[in-house]
Amino acid sequence: MKPGIRPRAVKISLLCGQLLALAAWSVGSATAQEQVQLPLPPGPAPAECAPVSAPAQDSVTLKRTFFDDFDKIDFSANKWTPHYDGGFDQISRRWQGYDWVVKRTAPAIREQQIYVDPNYRGTAGKSLKLNPFKIDNGIMSITAERVPEELENFLGGFQYMSGLLTTRRSFTQMYGYFEIRARVPAGPHLVPAFWMLADDRTWPQELDVMEAPSHVRDTIMSTLHWQQPVGQANKTACRTPLKGYDQDFHLYGALWMPERIVYYIDRKPVGQVATPSTFTKPMYMLVNLAVGGTWVGNATPDTPMPVKFDVDNISAFTMGEPDACTTASNGVKTCQGK
Length: 338
What we know:
By secondary structure, the chain is mainly beta. 4% of the residues lie in helices and 41% in strands.
């Protein structure tokens, strides 16, 4: 039996615990929790992601390791980084800074937006003072909109701009529960997402907790990408119907355990998949609003803009002890769950 998991024999205690958990956090609340209790669907989980249909038999209790309620965003503190990782440019044979275009979009899938932030200079040599992150009464909105025509030359010719936040310079974790409370947009040619990547820059080890690609109506997708032991990349996805998800805030989460990954909406399990044997690296969290690309089709001048992705809070929890987390010399906190 794994630490923190209660067997079916304590059925009455489990029911009471679930009621207490619901009392501590309603879906409409933005209150932070020091711990969370989640229902666990019957196992074992299948190799391909499958919906959860049977009622929960057990529960797991986790303790909080990360929380941001977005009263403010301070990029100088490195809690959130507004771009992908830097890297080596094979063409120029030199290391590129974080103004490099490929660190601010996903060229492999031909996304149309460039991710900007208040300090982003593009090719202008100074800040362009573009801010896709707006905070109002504790809600952080990531806004996708058209680039002003006079700035396109400084932004690599991109016609759309949006925002991306990652914890890669502040927080990573192996195993545990990762959650966002958000109101997700449903406009055309959009991919709002809350997801995770391995902290060592290798791919694929990717956990897409929540994606809402606009070409799949009233559906939340949760996808797992991993490397087979023989080296081949693989993926499997669950599709959860959620009509009108853009009208209200919902909790979207993923519980990553050594033996399985369970997806949740509003703290109810909706899908699960067996954890691949190679899925063993700490991961950091990302939240972004992508525009266009090969998946959802290209935006056009008729595509409604601007569009907002409203985020109330983001949390992480561990089945271990939060005080067992370590902080490296570069300031990155890493938690190892059980």
